[in-house]
Design goal:
The chain is mainly β. The chain has one helix at 2-20, and strands spanning 23-35, 50-62, 67-74, 79-92, 97-110, 117-131, 136-144, 147-150, 160-163, 166-176. The chain is 11% helix and 59% strand. Strand 2 (50-62) and strand 3 (67-74) form a beta hairpin.
């Protein structure tokens, strides 16, 4: 029940914020390519493979600021994350196609299995396409997002962790008001 209240509160906050400003609100699909939890002392992978992580996000952008925000949700196990990206380079390739470079921060928490929290830095690149007199935006972006955190697992495992290999890839759309 608490998880549903948390998600509903976050969604309600995004809706209220978007009603108060000229923004673009949308959804995106998330694919994260990341390593398993490395040992906090030597950064080696436990099984030597990259593991995909799939989720979805609600995004919020404004023409008045270079910041773009996303709220990620993954149901099994429950994970909630947030990103804030600053598009410090935003250039037009042609009339309706733009490209951008960004830096940002991320944070999140797992609410079921490990009860962990994490934070990290982001750097990436993307492209967006506008349609319907710039009211519909389609975009794709990729980032490098290394992060660290505290893992409060019920079993054995590292209390602190570092994930230097984490590459989120996002495809999405926003409706711009």
């Amino acid at each position: 029940m608490m998880k549903k209240i948390l998600v509903a509160t976050a969604l309600f906050s995004l809706i209220i914020f978007s009603a108060a400003a000229k923004v673009g609100v949308g959804v995106q699909g998330d694919l994260f390519l990341r390593s398993e939890l490395p040992s906090s002392s030597d950064f080696t992978f436990k099984d030597g493979r990259l593991k995909p992580f799939v989720g979805s996000s609600i995004t919020l952008a404004s023409n008045h600021t270079p910041w773009v925000f996303a709220l990620q949700v993954k149901p099994e196990p429950w994970y909630v994350g947030i990103t804030a990206d600053n598009w410090f380079v935003y250039k037009a390739h042609c009339r309706c196609i733009n490209y951008f470079f960004f830096w940002g921060i991320s944070g999140g928490m797992e609410l079921e299995d490990s009860y962990g929290i994490n934070t990290g830095a982001r750097a990436g690149v993307g492209v967006n396409f506008f349609f319907a007199k710039r009211h519909l935006e389609l975009y794709a972006q990729a980032a490098w997002n290394p992060y660290f955190g505290v893992n409060l697992k019920r079993g054995d495992g590292d209390l602190f962790f570092v994930k230097p290999i984490n590459f989120p890839v996002n495809l999405g759309m926003r409706v711009c008001f």
